[in-house]
Amino acid sequence: MMTLLLQTSVLDINYVAIWPMIILSISGIAVLLFGIAKDPVHRDMSMIGIVGFVLAGVATGRLWLPVKTVGQIRAFSNMVIIDHFSLYFFFIFIIIGLLTLLISASFLEAERLPVGEFYSLVMFAVVGMMLMAAAGHLVMIFLGLEIASISTYALAGYRRNDLRSNESAIKYFVLGSAATAFLLYGMALIYGATGSAELEGIRTAIIDNVNAATKQPVHTELLFLGAAMMLVGFSFKVSAVPFHLWTPDVYEGAPSSVTAFMATASKAAAFAAFLRVFVFCFVPGYGQGLHSAWTTSLETIAILTMIAGNIAALTQHNFKRMLAYSSIAHAGYALVGLIADDWQAVAFYLLTYSITNIGAFGLITYLAGRGDRETEIDDLAGLGFNNLGVSIAMLILLLSLAGIPLTAGFMGKFIVFKAAWQKGFHVAVIVAVVTSAVSVYYYLRPMVIMFFRELKVEPKRLPLPTGVLVTVVLSILGTFYLGVMPGRLFQAMENAKVSFVQSR
Amino acid sequence: MEKVLFLILAGISVAAAINVIFQRNTLYSAFSLIAVFGCLAALYVMLQAQLIAALQIIVYAGAIMVLFVFVIMLLNIRQEEEQKDRYHLYYLSLPIGVLLALEVYYGLSNIQDVSVPGAAVGNAESLGQGLFSTYLLPFEVTSILILLAIVGAVVLARKERDIPLEMLDALEAEQAKNKQSGKSEGKENN
Amino acid sequence: MVPLSWYLVLSAVLFTLGAVGLFVKRNIISIFMCIELMLNAVNLSLVAFSSFLKHLDGQLFVFMVMVVAAAEAGVGLALIISVFRNRESVDIDKLNLLKM
Amino acid sequence: MLSVIVFAPLVGAIVLGLFGRRLTEKIIAVIACSSVLVSTLAAFYAFWRLLSVKPAEDGVRRINETLFTWIAAGSFSVDFGFLLDPLSGVMILFVTGVGFLIHVFATGYMHGDSGFYRFFAYMNLFMFMMLVLVLGDNFLMMFVGWEGVGLCSYLLIGYYFLEKFAGDAAKKAFVVNRIGDFGLALGVMLIFLKFGNVSFVDKANMVSALSQAAKMPVEPFSGSILFAGGLTTIAALLFIGATGKSAQIPLFVWLPDAMAGPTPVSALIHAATMVTAGVYMIARTNAIFAKAPLALTIVAIVGALTAVVAATIGLAQWDIKKVLAYSTVSQLGYMFLACGAGAFAAGFFHVVTHAFFKALLFLGSGSVIHAMHHEQDMRRMGGLQKYLKTTFITMAIGTLAISGFPLLSGFFSKDEILWKVRSSPVLPGSLGTLLWLIGLATAAVTAIYMTRMMVVTFLGEERFRKASDTHGEHHEHEPHESPPVMTVPLVVLAFLSVVGGFVGIPEALAEKIVPHSLHGVTHSFYHFLDPVFIKLSTTPGNLTGALAADHGAELVSTLLSTLVALIAIGVGYAVFSKQPLLTMPKILENKYYVDELYDAVIVNPVKWTSKWILWKVMDVGIVDGTVNGLARLLGWFSIGIREFQVGFTRAYAIFLLIGALTVVGYFLYFGRL
């Protein structure tokens, strides 16, 4: 009993550290309440959502300097760790969440779907993702992941009457829950092996080779089994081959803006947790080769992911499906950064990818029309004639996804490949370079169809909704900013590297 | 004595779990699952986790499974679809299941028993202590989880007031037409 | 005293059965039940570790897992109802609109 | 200052892209041309400044301008900076100068086109990218430009997108270029791995990759070194990049098709500037190539083969632009031959003179096509000299220049190349002599097909009337000379084609024909560029290097090549003026045979494979529309992967479990140390 009391005395309630989450939760609830009111006004709800995200962004920004001086802030008995790593991911989630709100407004309105619930689900999902990125404890990763997942299940099936949306949600739900079960099993076994569920504790246990609870050596088989199970769970969440099969179906069926959210924020969150556990806890040189085991197996997975994602994308006719395969391929590239133990590279890559992708999906939301009925690549025919602006925007974003220089995509790939090459993952990097050369073929197809294909019969499209416009403009600006002068961001992340190392 | 009890409970739970899988009647599957949960609760008691055992009965068997059974009854699906499984995935169950079990067993096989000195943990008091101290944040976070689950469930299952897309299209076309005709009339007037 | 490994093995067997059920069952509700079975198997491991290590975290973890399972069940069953309304069926093999 | 050169066209491109649709043709033309003019003037100013800069330790004058640090990750940093040295200095002079003339010409040529603003937006964007390529002070910047010009080329080839072949040609160009780019990317990566940076110039705390390479020992001449990951490997990879962009065997196929674009595009991108990027890149990285004699030999052989193959194909073409396209490929082959022989300066000199006369010839052909209302078939031309006086005279000058007529620009550059190949210190054995003979033969063929083109187009019977009778839809009015905006650039380029060579008269020749006091001018090109190129060492077993100092032999060689050129021109004139059409097939039967053999050996099997093996075997409906044969091949694998994707959740679950089994199994059985 005494030990328990001692444990409770280290309780450190620090609301400042979790302000961004608190703000988002409160504004999520506020949007929900507005939505329940009679005759809810769209604009009001959008405003609340935007203000919520902006305030959360401000709160995150205000944490940056304190973290810089302290190195990291731990709160709630090590449940959350606020360091530059988590803040960086907070920014990604906030930006993506905000842009998701912006691109969703028009489709919700056009299809008369409930707005308040949608917004609040997005915001809660972002809270969950933040918890994942800032987790200092396995239970936080689990809860964050579930919050993010359950809201995306609901979002994927948001178009209740649409068979494809239903199907997408069910597939996502069934397979996602199964993967969560694997992840959870992995957590349980690692907890048993190391005697701690805190990331710090796990790390110490592995380094010292002492089970925190029993004071005996760490049980290797248990540890490996747990790590393997967790690897499976995370690989599913980042949609790496062979756990990727759900991705195209789910991405195709879900409403486009939800797909955008899943393809960017969910993936980034999964990577954040992946990094936290594998790079932070399973460090090289300890645990009887645990590090080499997970890097080699992830290297294989990354190679397979890049090959399968890119090649399968070649023959797609549906734009969303093509982008789904492309997102699988991109997960492969990010994994290449992950095996190089370089969180900066992965995080930067995810930022570039997310920024670009959200713009591309924003355009799809607009082009696909009501109910996402025109998502075939051929539906883009003649876009270059009747809407040069939109098609040039799409061109830029696709070029960035393909990794053409001067765009964010190139810079992200470059950083990741460089990191991996320096760590000696030559095969993976060569495969990455070859497959990204191949990827140009399928990104080329929409361009060809937009610019060099006859005009389709009905060129009638509604005016571009403001939200989509803003998103696309921001996304293109971001693409060029990150592609042309990422210097300051790199500098910031260089500094962050120091703080992350200190936290070890 | 304890070992015998364990073996009996384990046997029942495994048998019930197998029944969950191979039972064609969904309702019976659900009942078998409740049996598994019951056995697990008993095992938790053996592990001196009384509170968890109680929660297992109350939450799992009591709440969650009732929800399942309720939905099964609501949708009136007594039988699993009658026609045969076209894909014969049954046959895959054996190799995959055996392999997975073997692998996990290999991982767990040589685990030694540990005895950490100290009193057993798991009574309501210690759990409550933990829940409101170390686990305060996760505990709070679950409230968001539950809230969003409610929101999600309501959004997905609410009785529809959605308008089919085709109707929306037609509606819009009509509006546009009205607008246009209004415009042209206006022009004529001018 | 029952050894720890017994509990773990039982947990592994239940987990495997749940995993197998994922593809043996065709009824979506049954598949959900299999997922619940997998989660429970993990819970057994957690509780076993917790009481053998005399470490409270495992049981607190189980507490959270139960909450999650409840939430998941709520959303999942709502999804099923939504699907059933559109299709009059809960056979997962019939959900094959989205494919190559 | 350097940024002005680079960014002026970008400003033009952005303005035109954003507001062009609402502007009149006149304003668009002014914006487009003036942005390039600003760049041109800045380039001349910068060049003038460069002349007064004090040379660095290694004897090279440099102006370096760093805008900001582009990438700084750990010890690795890349600047967003520009470098002006003699090499890039010469390059920007003619890129901007010729570019400006072509822009002016295009305002006349594209007059009345519905996408006028789009065209010039792309053209300006191209200028920007090309200048980034040339002026970038590291491999990454060069790569940016490299990709950028490829993209613009793609957009411009497909400019007439309503015609299917234009779209196809654009795709082909893009895809073939990407294959080359891939080699370049790997090469740059290897450079980074080996030297730790990708810079061209030494910076404060960094010794550039090129200076490091310059200090390394020469690699041995053996087959295995090619895959050793050293300088030879790097050089070979870079050369793959060059073959893509500069249309060398085996990647030259895209260039003739690229003629689907508007003629000014062909002149600017596919003759004068972009396609020479490969030569520029090799000259820029001469420090690497000089240490890799095997790579140099490959370059020389590929260059010589390309030169002769393309020239023979050029003999059999009827489309006036296709003749010029093959001629371009062939001339590019010359440049690579020179580089491969270690005569980087001579190759680069040919880049410059070629830019003048080939731009001239293309613009002239554009003028002809304009006059003939977009007729490109020479069989429906003839006797045009009466109507198109200026065009005829200027094009005749261009033809003489490319054929190596004495004292015109092409004469000096080509002669220098041939002699340098003959006396090359790096080619093994007496390969230099063999390649020299091939070069000489190519020169003869070049003179013949160029004369043929001129004769068939401008002299003899006026066949276009007959053609218009049969065609019916053809207009009745006479061909007319183009407006001054089009002819003035022709005249300027003709002038440059005549005098351009005088800055680079070979030494042996200069002694005989130029007054002594002028020697400083006549050889200034080589003196100016000399410090950029590092000294070559003689490859063991080389038999030709000893000739280098023998001025007598050089004069004999010059005489020989002059003779060849004159005889070839005479033969061409004699043959084709008599029978421009009828005798063609008979005379060229053998050449046709070469052409078809070439088709049969390379093009048809590829087509056949892609059609029958890859395309028919695969489900046409599914893979239809993927980019080309390569994409089809990959598509075939793609279907294999898609078999998993049956659409059933349970199948996905099985794969999830199998994947989990594999990962867990790997961890447990193989993972532990």
Question: Could you explain how this protein is built, in words?
Answer:
The complex is a heterotetramer of chains A (504), B (190), C (100) and D (673). Chain A has 504 residues and is mostly helical. Chain A has 20 helices and two strands. A two-stranded antiparallel sheet of chain A has the order 1-2. Chain B is mainly alpha-helical. With 673 residues, chain D is mainly alpha-helical. In chain D, a hairpin with a 2-residue loop joins strand 1 (63-73) and strand 2 (76-84). The N and C termini of chain D lie far apart (60 Å). Classes of the chains: A mainly alpha (504), B mainly alpha (190), C mainly alpha (100), D mainly alpha (673). Chains B and C meet through helix 1, helix 2, helix 3, helix 4 and helix 5 of B and helix 1, helix 2 and helix 3 of C.
Gross morphology of chain C: elongated
Biggest sheet descriptor of chain A = 2 strands, antiparallel
The tally of strands of chain C reads 0
Mean pLDDT level of chain A: 87
Q: Helix tally of chain C?
A: 3
Oligomer: heterotetramer
Span between N and C termini of chain A?
Answer: 31 Å
Compact summary:
With 504 residues, chain A is mainly alpha-helical. Chain A has one domain. Helices cover 76% and strands 1% of the residues of chain A.
Keywords:
heterotetramer; A: 504 residues; globular; disordered N terminus; C: 100 residues; mainly alpha
What is the fold's blueprint, element by element?
The complex is a heterotetramer of chains A (504), B (190), C (100) and D (673).
Chain A: H1 2-9, H2 19-36, H3 42-70, E1 73-75, E2 80-82, H4 84-111, H5 115-133, H6 138-156, H7 163-194, H8 199-208, H9 220-237, H10 246-253, H11 256-281, H12 290-314, H13 319-339, H14 343-368, H15 383-386, H16 388-402, H17 408-422, H18 426-452, H19 466-484, H20 487-503
Antiparallel strand pairs in A: 1-2
Chain B: H1 2-22, H2 26-46, H3 50-75, H4 90-108, H5 124-131, H6 136-157, H7 165-189
Chain D: H1 2-19, H2 25-51, E1 63-73, E2 76-84, H3 86-109, H4 116-135, H5 139-157, H6 164-195, H7 209-214, H8 231-245, H9 254-257, H10 263-272, H11 277-284, H12 286-289, H13 293-315, H14 320-340, H15 344-371, H16 389-403, H17 409-422, H18 431-458, H19 463-471, H20 484-499, H21 507-513, H22 519-522, H23 524-529, H24 551-578, H25 583-587, H26 589-616, H27 620-623, H28 629-642, H29 649-671
